[in-house]
Amino acid sequence: MIIFSRTPRTYRKSSPEISYAAWNLDEQTVNEEAFQQAKYIIHLAGAGVADKPWTDKRKREIIESRTRSSELLIKAMKSIPNNIVSVVSASAIGWYNQNIPGPATETDSPDSGFLGATCQAWEKSIQPATSLDKRLVILRTGIVLSNDGGAFPEFAKPIRYGIAGILGSGKQIISWIHIEDICRLYMEAMTNAAWSGVYNAVAPNPVNNRTFTLELAKKMKGSFYIPIPVPNFILRLMLGERSEEVLKSSNISANKLKQQGFQFIYPTIDAAFRDLIQH
To answer: What is the residue range of 50's domain?
Structure first.
């Protein structure tokens, strides 16, 4: 495995199978020798959406970190002799307009808001891979549940102190996926020639925010917790425009994955929480 980084020298090899190579988005350059060794590309680059307030500068960074990295990969595939078979690119369920009834499917149009526009630009920027005769898979990913960063530790943090915060109405749907399942999904999409196009990378059983929070509290604290509603206006004061991320409903269909034959290890929130808390 070769990981492209702006600062490859700052990383130590964690195993003989992992190495680091340089790329530079500003200069649109990539280590050609490393690129020539690749058979598959997994494109995960992009600034964090929830990390910082959405100033105009941050919004540009969120979009350009995704599109410019795609442009560099396309440029490299055009100019450097390579043996790349497939490209698997991340996207997000922020693509969808959550005011539509029923579970969202891969054929639905993008939302007109910032996240919808970001996902649209992101996916469009990597589409030229298909004209280069590379099999392209795009995974619109839900909330990834992992002990190593992301949303799960943030949900768990107040529960450790016995507080189960119900966000807004608590009725908004959360479409999630366990970290082990998303990793398996990337591997399958990368190596299985039957996969092509866009897939929703979510577990088949989404839950609302209230159920998510209370189930996690029960797993962590038994009956020793207090549910506390966090009103919409408080979230908007704390998070600004980013509050739409936690207040919107994301009811996303996993049917296309199931039709493709993908088997989830953690299809329910109960199974996912049990594993994450044990580890």
So the answer is: 38-278
Residue 203's Cβ-count burial label (10 Å; 0-12, 13-18, 19+) is buried
Give the pLDDT confidence of 153-195 residue by residue, as tens digits. Answer: 989 999 999 999 999 999 999 999 999 999 999 999 999 999 9
Report the C-alpha gap between 109 and 23 in whole angstroms.
33
Residue 74 neighbours by CB under 8 Å, 6+ apart: 125, 126, 128, 129, 132
CA angle 203, 138, 268 (to 5 degrees): 5
Q: How confident is the model over 99-119, as a mean pLDDT?
A: 89
| pLDDT score recorded for residue 102 | 75
Structural domain contains residue 10 = no
Q: Write the burial class of residue 189 (CB in 10 Å: 0-12 exposed, 13-18 middle, 19+ buried).
A: buried
Strands (E), 33-171: 40-43, 86-92, 135-141, 143-145, 163-167
For residue 165, what are the β-bridge partners?
228
Chain-centroid distance, C-alpha 64? 17
Continuous segment of H or E residues that includes residue 153: helix 151-159
Select from 139, 157, 118, 99 the least CA-distant residue to 254.
Answer: 139
Whether 147 contacts 279, CB under 8 Å: yes
Q: Supply 5's token pair.
A: 């980084």
> CATH no. for residue 194?
3.40.50.720
**Residue 247 near residue 168, CB atoms below 8 Å:** yes
C-alpha to C-alpha distance for 199 and 105, rounded to whole angstroms: 9
Q: Considering the domain boundaries, does residue 248 fall inside one?
A: yes
Three-state secondary-structure class, residue 214: helix
Residue with tokens 């908007």: 236
73 alpha carbon, distance to own chain's centre: 19
Q: Cα separation of 113 and 95, whole Å?
A: 9
Is the pTM higher than 0.90? The answer reads: yes
